Amino acid sequence: MLYDIIVIGKGLIGTATARHLSMTQQSIAIIGPDEPENMDQAVVFSSHYDSGRVQRMVGQTDAMTKLNVAAVNQYPVLAHLSGIPFHTGIGCLYVNPTGTDDFLMQAKRRAHQFGIETKFFASTDELRQSFPEFVFPDGAKGMFEPAPAGHISPPNLIMAQLNVFKKNGGTIFKDTVNGVTVNNRCIEITTYQGNIFQAKKVVIAAGAFSNFSKLLPRKLDLVLKSETVLLARLSSAEAERLSTLPSLLYEMDTPEVEGIYLTQPIRYPDGHHYLKMGCNLPHDIFFGNDLTAIQKWFRKGDSAAHIKEMREALQLIMPGMKVDDYVTKRCILPRTQKHKNPYIGKIDEQLFVTAGNGWSAMCSDGVGYVMAAFVVNGNFPAGFEAADYEPVFL
Ligand SMILES: Cc1cc2nc3c(=O)[nH]c(=O)nc-3n(C[C@H](O)[C@H](O)[C@H](O)COP(=O)(O)OP(=O)(O)OC[C@H]3O[C@@H](n4cnc5c(N)ncnc54)[C@H](O)[C@@H]3O)c2cc1C
Question: Strand 273-280 relative to strand 92-96: parallel, antiparallel, unpaired?
Answer without folding.
Answer: unpaired
